[in-house]
UniProtKB/TrEMBL annotation:
<feature type="binding site">
    <location>
        <position position="413"/>
    </location>
    <ligand>
        <name>substrate</name>
    </ligand>
</feature>
<comment type="function">
    <text>Catalyzes the sequential NAD-dependent oxidations of L-histidinol to L-histidinaldehyde and then to L-histidine.</text>
</comment>
<feature type="binding site">
    <location>
        <position position="252"/>
    </location>
    <ligand>
        <name>substrate</name>
    </ligand>
</feature>
<comment type="pathway">
    <text>Amino-acid biosynthesis; L-histidine biosynthesis; L-histidine from 5-phospho-alpha-D-ribose 1-diphosphate: step 9/9.</text>
</comment>
<dbReference type="InterPro" id="IPR012131">
    <property type="entry name" value="Hstdl_DH"/>
</dbReference>
<dbReference type="InterPro" id="IPR001692">
    <property type="entry name" value="Histidinol_DH_CS"/>
</dbReference>
<keyword id="KW-0560">Oxidoreductase</keyword>
<keyword id="KW-0520">NAD</keyword>
<dbReference type="InterPro" id="IPR016161">
    <property type="entry name" value="Ald_DH/histidinol_DH"/>
</dbReference>
<keyword id="KW-0479">Metal-binding</keyword>
<keyword id="KW-0368">Histidine biosynthesis</keyword>
<feature type="active site" description="Proton acceptor">
    <location>
        <position position="320"/>
    </location>
</feature>
<dbReference type="GO" id="GO:0051287">
    <property type="term" value="F:NAD binding"/>
</dbReference>
<protein>
    <recommendedName>
        <fullName>Histidinol dehydrogenase</fullName>
        <ecNumber>1.1.1.23</ecNumber>
    </recommendedName>
</protein>
<feature type="binding site">
    <location>
        <position position="354"/>
    </location>
    <ligand>
        <name>substrate</name>
    </ligand>
</feature>
<feature type="binding site">
    <location>
        <position position="230"/>
    </location>
    <ligand>
        <name>substrate</name>
    </ligand>
</feature>
<dbReference type="InterPro" id="IPR022695">
    <property type="entry name" value="Histidinol_DH_monofunct"/>
</dbReference>
Length: 424
């Protein structure tokens, strides 16, 4: 990693992704249309083309669930048990209740909170397995009260789903798991097929094709967010340990060649130590090729003059994961305006949030933390406004309603009030 000043960092223009997205969109739109036209047959053909497997059935069977349970360790079962407890405890605090206000003359106003009917959860798969993402998406949906929850995940080369994903899903509860991935899975959830029911909302992370497909079907169906590559930004001072900082930077770099790992520090000596540590630790990583590409392409070590300057830069970046490895980190929470998740101190590393602490690890990326939030129970609920007026209450405000309606040229609105006012 090369050490840079804040001026150098700010001068570097981000490479435009417009051309890349145009190429992806061409493929994605063709896939969406094919799924809409040919349904299950399209999904089976894409499984053969992209996943290298000819499926006989899109649905995971009960026998496959039972087989999966025999393949996982007791240590794994205990880990997901503890993770579930923490995730449920955190997300339960997000539950919203319907509320009502009773005013004079028989007026009742309020908000009714209800769960969505049907949700589709995308879980990346094929070469990798993400049971933690199963927990993070299914648990808040269950807490919200969603009755029908489905999972889409790509099959392995043997036509099966990773057993850890199946066991995690079974432990939380899922209506059905479909063997489908990529843009075709998004299309199936958005429009339905002979086997796959149309859902109200699609959630869960995925590759560029999944992300672009979600963008294109939005409006026909709701989505959680359009997630980009993983990001971590660490603000560190002289109290931070270089080996901790390096390890945490690499925890995101191993995700993807396009992942971004940034360290902002007020201490140049620490920056040099972190650069050395990153190189030392990279050599020992199992996923060193991926992590090396990420660090070389997107790794940043930025030296600033003050913490104030550091937080100005943080709020401009609006990172997915922000670690404050500084003295009295909690005292600086007010300095952070934009971040998906904030980790405080040297013993709150990002993987703690990925797996165990409880807050959701599905987070806004690519600067969208400036206007977006982590996935939560609220993503699976919707609100309806409640209005009840008595005749007396309506007549008190009738003339005002008519005035505003007539001013806007909506005379039928005005007459809807007038007919009640003049009914006698």
């Amino acid at each position: 990693m090369r050490i840079k000043s804040i001026e150098e960092f700010q001068l570097e223009a981000k490479q435009s992704e417009v051309e890349r997205n145009e190429k992806i969109d061409e493929t994605v739109l063709a896939i969406i249309q094919e799924v809409r036209k040919n349904g299950d047959n399209a999904l089976l053909n894409y499984a053969e083309k992209f996943d290298g497997v000819r499926l006989e059935n899109l649905v995971v069977t009960e026998d496959e669930f039972e087989e999966a349970e025999k393949q996982v360790s007791e240590e794994f079962l205990k880990a997901i048990e503890v993770a579930q407890k923490n995730i449920k405890e955190f997300h339960a605090a997000q539950l919203e209740k319907s509320w009502f206000i009773h005013k004079a003359d028989g007026v009742m106003l309020g908000q009714q909170v209800t769960p969505m009917d049907r949700v589709g959860v995308y879980i990346p798969g094929g070469k990798a397995a993400y049971p933690s993402t199963v927990l993070m998406n299914l648990i808040p949906a269950h807490l919200a009260g969603v009755p029908d929850i489905y999972i889409a995940t790509p099959p392995q080369a043997d036509g099966k789903i990773n057993p850890h994903v199946l066991v995690a899903a079974k432990s939380v509860g899922v209506n059905c798991i479909f063997k489908m991935g990529g843009a075709q899975a998004v299309a199936a959830f958005a429009y339905g097929t002979e086997t796959v029911k149309k859902v109200d909302k699609i959630v869960g992370p995925g590759n560029d094709y999944v992300a672009r497909a979600k963008k294109w079907v939005y409006g026909d169906v709701a989505i959680d967010m359009i997630a980009g590559p993983s990001e971590i930004c660490i603000v560190a001072d002289e109290t931070a340990r270089a080996d901790y900082v390096a390890a945490d930077l690499l925890s995101q770099a191993e995700h993807d060649e396009a992942a971004t790992s940034i360290c902002i520090t007020t201490n140049k000596e620490l920056a040099q130590e972190v650069a050395t540590e990153v190189n030392r630790q990279l050599a020992k990583l199992e996923r060193r090729e991926v992590a090396t590409a990420s660090i070389e392409n997107n790794g940043q070590l930025i030296v600033v003059d003050s913490l104030q300057q550091a937080f100005t830069l943080v709020n401009d970046i609006a990172p997915e994961h922000l670690q404050l490895m500084i003295e009295n980190a909690t005292d600086h929470l007010a300095d952070v305006k934009h971040a998906g998740a904030i980790f405080l101190g040297n013993y709150s590393p990002e993987p703690l949030g990925d797996y165990m602490a409880g807050p959701n690890h599905t987070l806004p990326t690519s600067g969208t933390a400036k206007f977006a939030s982590p996935l939560g129970v609220y993503d699976f609920m919707k609100k309806s406004s409640i209005i009840r007026y008595s005749e007396t209450a309506l007549l008190k405000e009738a003339s005002y309603i008519e005035t505003l309606a007539n001013m806007e040229g909506l005379s039928a609105h005005a007459k809807s009030i007038e007919i009640r006012r003049k009914k006698k």
